[in-house]
């Protein structure tokens, strides 16, 4: 029985070099291209590609991504799971009761300023005109109600043409004369 002088392990009689460090007792040198022999109990074990810290990081990272996607698409996932449940249990759902996949977006409703006062009327015209209300929308189409009739800009009321509808007044042209009818409180 020989003992390795570097690692002090027993070298078997059938071995020419130390199985632990590669020492050759016959030449009293270290073997340059020494490859450690695997013992029988280590031969079945595979070396891990990733260290435990990296594995933990990857698992937690995947969990966070899956959880985030679940929150983002929870409505769609809920619909899918509900359909799977109904399919497994054999419940039939009528197609008319299902919610359509894509719905049209709801158009935003703008509030408009509604004024309903008596307007000062040109007494010289001698005509009974009364502004009953102004429906003013600065971003869209405005209307004025005169004697129960709803008229938009560029509309006609008798021989009067509505030129512009403002918040508190209406600019009209009648018989070639430009007039401003105002709302009185």
Could you characterize what this model shows?
The protein has 185 residues and is of the alpha+beta class. It has 3 domains: 1-43, no CATH class; 52-94, no CATH class; 113-184, Roll (SH3 type barrels). Helix content is 20%, strand content 26%. The chain is built from 2 helices and 13 strands; from the N terminus they run ββββααβββββββββ. It starts with a strand and ends with a strand. 8% of the residues are buried. Residues 117-126 have low confidence and may be disordered.
Low-confidence stretches: 117-126
Name the average pLDDT.
76
Strand % is: 25-35%
- CATH fold topology of the largest domain: SH3 type barrels
Number of helices: 2
Order of helices and strands: EEEEHHEEEEEEEEE
Q: What's the helical proportion of residues?
A: 10-25%
Strand order of the largest sheet: 6-13-12-11-10
CATH architecture annotation name of the largest domain: Roll
| Rg on CA atoms, Å | 46 Å
Instruction: State the end-to-end distance.
Output: 122 Å
Indicate how many domains the architecture comprises: 3
**Any idea what the shape is?**
rod-shaped
Q: Main β-sheet, in a few words? A: 5 strands, antiparallel
CATH class of the largest domain: Mainly Beta
Secondary-structure class: alpha+beta
The total of beta strands comes to: 13
